[in-house]
Amino acid sequence: MRKKTIKGFTLIELLVVIAIIGILSGTGVVAYNSYTSAAKETATKSNHTKIVNSMESEFAKCKLDKSSTIFNSHKCNSSNRPSTGTINNYVNSLGLKNPYDKSRPVAQSNVCTSGSIAISEKETGSYNVAYASIKKKKKHTSLVSSGWSKNYSKTKTTSVAFTCASKASASSGPKQTIYTYKPPHDGPGAGIIVDENGNMLAGQGAHACGPDCFNGKMPNWYTTDTNGNRIYPGRPGSKWRWVMTEGASASGNIASSCNGGNCKYNFSDGTYTVLNSGVTYKAGESIDNRKAIP
What we know:
This protein is of the alpha+beta class. It folds into 2 domains: 37-161, no CATH class; 166-294, no CATH class. It has helices at residues 11-64, 84-91, 211-214, and strands spanning 69-70, 74-75, 118-123, 126-133, 138-145, 156-161, 189-194, 207-209, 223-224, 230-231, 241-247, 263-266, 271-274, 279-282. The strands form 5 sheets. It has a 4-stranded antiparallel β-sheet with strand order 3-4-5-6. It has a 3-stranded antiparallel β-sheet with strand order 8-7-11. Strands 12-13-14 form a 3-stranded antiparallel β-sheet, with no helix packed on it. The longest helix is centred in the first third of the chain and has 54 residues, at 11-64. It is flat. The model is unreliable at 167-172 (pLDDT under 50).
């Protein structure tokens, strides 16, 4: 009677199989990342088109009826053209989603913020509506004019080579996190309580606060979240942190744009974005002296 010989895989065969699986897995990850990147760029382009069409429709109302109101609040019979802030607020009320970060508004001042559409005034009554394609290294700009413009013409879209410069530099030092945060200066200011991603604590607004709020010298101060849980933003290792947005003015006045959860903080570069306008500022400057980061 013959004995059956059971053959198994050799070590080399197993290693070859493992190597093949690894190659296929890596290829799949690259393909998936490429697909998601392309989808986000397509969504940004779609948002740009919707915003341009919406602006054209709003301006057309004024041509039909001078008593109309456009962008939710601007009167067509006004001698002043709509400000970019008014248009940004209107755009951010349309319900469009930033494909890169749904918590960030679509209309923002910096065209290099992923998924943003930057609206700026080229000349009186004419607005550049732009977005940057990171993948293709191009900036696409549509010039939308209005009845307040000397040259009311059909919208034109142009594309130019464009590369977003990195904000980080060798001299800037390591990026901060919620656990290594240091306030922009040692004075008082308006503060918000945020998580590690810079999102404000739900139900909390901005608070005028002295230096001890921001430098970690109030470890026992607490507030509560929407579920009644205690939050200690001044305690080392806490998942929530006091951060300064606006500093006090020269007269000691402290004011903020962050009430009602209206801001998002960026630990990596020490800036904050006012969500309803999409404008980004450097943290620590007073509301009187701050300037929007382009």
